[in-house]
């Protein structure tokens, strides 16, 4: 596969976007789903947290399976599951069924993200992967930027079930594209990678690498802050501040522009500046955004600008952190890139699920719970970099 193949680059971007589009498209519908099923905020937010839990759990399997059997067949199976589960979500008769279907949807969506990242590592190598992932993240940000806008209009025009029909169509389109465009990219399949003992040894190898753990935690905390906004913003902006679903989508899209700015800067600077310096800059910018957001919330300042502006700043930092943290984690492990990507995803999605549950239970009609979580994970990202990556990364990685 040629790294400059535009069609394949667009397909990889779509695959890596599966998690984002699957959560962001229906965000404007969360209050409507709560009303339709007579559910409370915490219960409806389980459709988000359970999705992340399923996403995290399945990565443990997808990574080793792709290292053993190849990226393509495992990806095709996962996308098929995603299409079926999306249709089940659309037909859900009650909130319990929807939560269960979202779990199955996550099992399928996970294949796109884990294997998409592994294919990037297969094709580009470590340093070029950081640049490629940065530009892919910038393009991928169109999913959370446009997803809530489209979802808001779908909610206004057709109701919440239309969102899941669109997701089923997205999955079917990607499945067809994989059949037509994506060759197998794993050049060194490990016949023992999917065996229990070998899987355990591979995961232990990763767990004993302090720099790898540091990169993983930076990425997980960075995404945790994004998910705090994902899980709490619709209730704050729609229920508390009274925005319509379509206007909420526009606010969400405006915030995501911050992430696009961060990823664009990362793509332009990753080779010249180095991924570690960009991560440190991102943690500082993200922490500044989290502190400002929490300070406004604790001061009782609650308005659209007080929600959007500091989150915009935080997402600039997240755009600098995430693609470089992913590249830093996966890069040194070419023979088990799938497993390294899976480990990273388990931690990232597991932590985000916990953040989503916390935000749901802390929601009190203000932005305090949402922004308290944002500030906490921003501090965690900085601590992970300083204590693990900066202390051990140069000696272990030679970077």
CATH superfamily membership: MFS general substrate transporter like domains
Class in CATH?
A: Mainly Alpha
Number of domains: 1
Structural class: mainly alpha
Order of helices and strands: HHHHHHHHHHHHHHHH
Q: Which bin fits the share of residues in helices?
A: over 70%
Taking the alpha carbons of the first and last residues, their distance comes to: 27 Å
Strand content: under 5%
In total, how many beta strands?
A: 0
Number of helices: 16
Q: Taking all residues together, what is the mean pLDDT?
A: 81
Query: Any idea what the CATH architecture is?
Result: Up-down Bundle
- Low-confidence parts: 394-399
Shape: globular
Rg is 20 Å
The CATH topology annotation reads as Growth Hormone, Chain: A
Instruction: Please outline the major beta sheet.
Output: none
Q: What oligomerization state is this entry in?
A: single chain
Question: Could you walk me through the main structural features you see in this protein, from its secondary elements to its overall organization?
Answer:
The chain is mainly α and about 400 residues long. About 85% of the residues lie in helices and about 0% in strands. It has a single domain (about 5-180, about 195-395), classed as Growth Hormone, Chain: A. It has 16 helices and no strands. The model is unreliable at about 395-399 (pLDDT under 50).
Sum this structure up briefly:
By secondary structure, the protein is mostly helical.
What's the SSE blueprint?
Blueprint lengths: L5 H11 L1 H7 L5 H7 L4 H29 L1 H20 L4 H30 L1 H15 L1 H16 L3 H21 L14 H12 L2 H31 L4 H29 L1 H24 L5 H27 L6 H26 L5 H30 L2
Helix pairs in contact: 1-6, 1-7, 1-9, 2-8, 3-4, 4-5, 4-6, 4-15, 5-6, 5-9, 6-7, 6-15, 7-12, 7-14, 8-12, 11-14, 11-15, 11-16, 12-13, 12-14, 13-14, 13-16, 15-16
């Amino acid at each position: 596969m040629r790294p400059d193949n535009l069609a394949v680059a667009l397909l990889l971007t779509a695959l890596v976007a599966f998690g984002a589009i699957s959560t962001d498209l229906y965000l404007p519908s969360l209050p409507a789903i709560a009303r339709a099923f007579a559910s409370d905020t915490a219960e409806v937010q389980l459709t988000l947290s359970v999705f992340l839990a399923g996403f995290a759990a399945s990565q443990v399997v997808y990574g080793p399976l792709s290292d053993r059997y190849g990226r393509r067949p495992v990806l095709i199976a996962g996308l098929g599951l995603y299409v079926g589960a999306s249709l089940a979500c659309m037909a859900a008769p009650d909130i319990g069924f929807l939560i269960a279907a979202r779990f199955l949807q996550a099992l399928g969506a996970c294949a796109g993200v884990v294997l998409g990242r592994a294919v990037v590592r297969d094709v580009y190598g470590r340093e070029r992967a950081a640049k490629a992932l940065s530009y892919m993240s910038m393009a991928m940000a169109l999913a959370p930027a446009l997803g809530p806008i489209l979802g808001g209009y779908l909610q206004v025009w057709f109701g919440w079930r239309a969102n899941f029909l669109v997701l089923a169509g997205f999955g079917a389109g990607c499945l067809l594209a994989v059949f037509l465009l994506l060759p197998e990219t794993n050049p060194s399949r490990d016949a023992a990678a999917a065996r229990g003992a070998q899987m355990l040894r591979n995961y232990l190898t990763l767990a004993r690498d302090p720099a790898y753990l540091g990169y993983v935690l930076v990425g997980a905390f960075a995404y945790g802050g994004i998910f705090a906004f994902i899980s709490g913003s619709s209730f704050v902006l729609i229920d508390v501040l009274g925005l319509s679903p379509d206007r909420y989508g526009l606010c969400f899209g405006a915030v995501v522009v911050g992430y696009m700015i961060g990823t664009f800067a990362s793509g332009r600077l990753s080779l010249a500046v180095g991924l570690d310096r960009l991560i440190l800059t991102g943690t500082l910018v993200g922490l500044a955004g989290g502190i400002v957001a929490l300070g406004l919330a604790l001061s009782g300042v609650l308005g659209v600008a007080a929600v959007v502006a500091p989150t915009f700043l935080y997402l600039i930092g997240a755009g600098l952190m995430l693609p470089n943290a992913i590249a830093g984690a996966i890069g040194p492990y070419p023979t088990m890139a799938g497993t390294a990507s899976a480990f990273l995803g388990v931690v990232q999605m597991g932590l985000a699920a916990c953040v989503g549950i916390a935000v749901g239970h802390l929601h009190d009609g203000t932005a305090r719970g949402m922004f308290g979580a944002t500030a906490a994970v921003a501090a965690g990202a900085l601590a992970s970099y300083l204590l693990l990556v900066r202390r051990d990364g140069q000696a272990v990685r030679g970077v």
